[in-house]
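Might I ask for a little of your time on a matter of protein folding? The record follows directly beneath this note:
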Amino acid sequence: MRGLGLRGAAGLLALLLAVSLAGCTDSGGEGEGELTIGLLLPSRAVPRWEKSDKPLIEKRLKELCPDCTLVYANAENDAASQRQQMNSMITRGVSALILDVVDPKALRSSVRAAQREGIPVVAYDRLAEGPISGFVSFDGAQVGRLQGRALLEGMGARADGGGVVMVNGDPSSPNAAWYEGGALAVLRNEVRILKSYNTIGWRTENAHDHMSAAISNLGPSRIDGVLAANDSIAAGVISALKSARVSPLPPVTGQDADLDAVQRIVKGEQYMTVYKPFRLETEAAAAMAVALARGNDVGALVTSQVDSPTTENVPAVLLDPTAVTRETIGRTLVRDGVYTIDQICTPKLRSACARAGLTR
């Protein structure tokens, strides 16, 4: 990855300005009413796709191109289904595609088919293979580093040579290895990795099975911390720990700032999550897709270049994630309007919220 310096609030504001300006660019040809943008998301197993990404992309597309049509499909974590969905959109003749790929290798031929038909593909959140025209995501290595640093912090004195179980993401996703590599860069030489699992489909039930196996194999007293790749995985990990009556719970990481994960953090069951301001990611992807659909250059939008296994120098936007612990929920998620205190602090959580400083 080769970054060009998008860091901090000033950089994010500059990106948003560029996105807005790009959305107002004159098409110089095809009428806006003829533009159709295809959106392909990977699953419903991770709540963010349907609850955050889809509505935010839809909203921003409508703002940038009021007469554009959005065509949407969810692959339910099945690469064959996503390939069929994408090929159907290519046959329909969409103007551009936003693709959050289930399996990059399995979709490579469809990306090539889109190129042959003159349809640009914006890889969204996960780096697709083949001749993609752009990539928008968060810096995955930084996600892993934030998780690793927080886990060491949560482990306290046990961080010096303590035992960690890693419950990683789906190996078919390029992001899983990206996150894992960032975490290992922090954890290696600090702790002992006792077990490491790959979680097919990022599914909570699969993570539960992995953690149950680790507890059975290692015994709970040897597990000082758990690196869980995202919040759905963290939910399965914590469920398994509680089922095994492990007390106190070891620190468990997460990612995506799902509402139930934030509530687990308030309760002290999950140590942290990684907040990725999805609005910034969705706005950048929508702007890139509209610009490409109009035949415009995206140079003003991008902040980086990346290489995939098949394509070099892909124009990219890589955004910065933020670690969130109980102490920082208010000045991150609540301040940014992701959740209100009332949404987080249900009646059963009000005393815990008060201890966390989450009061109106």
Q: What stands out?
A: Confidence is low (pLDDT under 50) at residues 3-32.
